């Protein structure tokens, strides 16, 4: 190891290396491609910083003038990229290396100027780095090493195309290191495509995952989730804590709730700008904020030195997210607590997540208000202030207090001041009582109240009215049945005397509605469906409908000899044309050559005018109206007289048949 790096490690207090750091710095692996899987908090950043050092230094002890980048580190999120930059900056500081970053959300012009000035190591997010490559503001020709940190997360976020583009632009003789918490199939394919004879290093084991983290699954009632979070924060009083939510809306809601309760809290979600996210994390590091409410955007790579508590306000979607969330605490040998808030409906999901992640959690109820108060007293008595000698600057005030007030008064005042500096705990429902089945209602008495469905009566209005005017609780009221003209309410028998006493002898409730006690169980009306009228006419069954009368022989179609069963076919049967008659034509021409009922549509053709300049009757888009002469010979007086004579005689000769074409809508 180079002397400059050794001095930097000693200055930071690093006496020994972690398992992953020792593995990647093995002299036998110098310059080789590595595929490393290690759990979060195991020192991966420092590990790959040391692994790429031999290729960057060469034979020199310090770096020369910064020109084109020698190393490229790619991280999935802005926060992780900036954190990696900070780690590599102090590691390579004594060697004179220039470390810069290119991440989304920052001013690209400032980044281009920094790259133009030169940098030895560039830490970037995939999207922004690809932009710089396409704009020609970064030169990758001199790269000696490329590191993909949290490679599985980058693939999950959809950066596959960006990573492939970047790796194809890098020199082929580079050293490529892939660091990932897990190695799924996609990571293995990526390593096979862009690494050469990579050495696989695995320092994780499912049985010992996060040995420094205490997992707790806290059972709460469905309505006490947020109250339980407040009590957990108060119970542990961690210097730094992260509360993870699944949505931005939940982050905003919980941040407001905790702020109103007196917690120094910041929010961290994807909707915030990079500047806001950076200030939020800096407030956690400086101690100005103690609680960070965040979405999973903060689950990868965030390293807060005093983070001792992680709370899952909502259960994560999978076991990997559970591990990465919890991995924010218990880092580098420090202890931490990962608390899951588990309402009854999420019990099975929590058990599955823990099983898939091969974790064991202590199941218990969320800390109650009494437990939080007892913990406060324990911390108060263990405070070092009791053993600190009295400073001369406050000796006069101490003497006045002891002479003016008794010890009991001074102690009471101290306790009150101590509690004023801490948020009061929340009262939680007894989860064991909530889990018990509801007590049987038992004997009851029914009451009838004037006004039902027709008057707009609803159970949600009757229940508070009975509780208020009858001095009852919700448990004293059983079923509520709304009839058309009345409303029926069931009341527990042992509560009836108090109810009658509160109502009074007049038995009148709001708006003069009369109340009547029923002697026994009432007969309920059948509630009609909303989409049908209340008094629908009774329909006769199909079998009792009278049969359709048979048509007479005169009304049957010509050519039939047996009675027609009109119920046989709902479609009317076409009449056969009379002998010698031409079939009627229309704009819809039926294709009778096929057995199927296919209709072919042909556009109407306008008739040519008889004389130059004349127009068809009815205009361009309307059929001809009025009597029109048939095709063939022009109409004459002799023809018209023949038609009139045939019509009077009732004949059906050729003249009569031709006259049908003169009717409107006939053949033209």
CATH fold descriptor of the domain at 3-204:
Rossmann fold
CATH level-two architecture of the domain at 3-204: 3-Layer(aba) Sandwich
Q: How many strand elements? A: 20
Spans of at least 5 consecutive residues with low confidence: 550-564, 586-606, 614-622, 652-668
Can you put this structure into words, describing what you see?
By secondary structure, the protein is of the alpha/beta class. Among the domains are: 3-204, P-loop containing nucleotide triphosphate hydrolases (Rossmann fold, 3-Layer(aba) Sandwich), CATH 3.40.50.300; 209-374, P-loop containing nucleotide triphosphate hydrolases (Rossmann fold, 3-Layer(aba) Sandwich); 440-517, RRM (RNA recognition motif) domain (Alpha-Beta Plaits). The strands form 4 sheets. It has a 7-stranded parallel sheet, sandwiched between helices. Strands 10-11-9-12-13-8-14 form a 7-stranded parallel sheet, with helices on both faces. A 4-stranded antiparallel sheet has the order 16-17-15-18, with helices on one face. α7 (126-135) crosses α9 (160-169) and α11 (225-236) packs parallel to α16. The longest helix is centred in the first third of the chain and has 14 residues, at 78-91. It is extended and about 105 Å long. The N and C termini lie far apart (105 Å). Mean pLDDT is 78; it is low at 550-564, 586-606, 614-622 and 652-668.
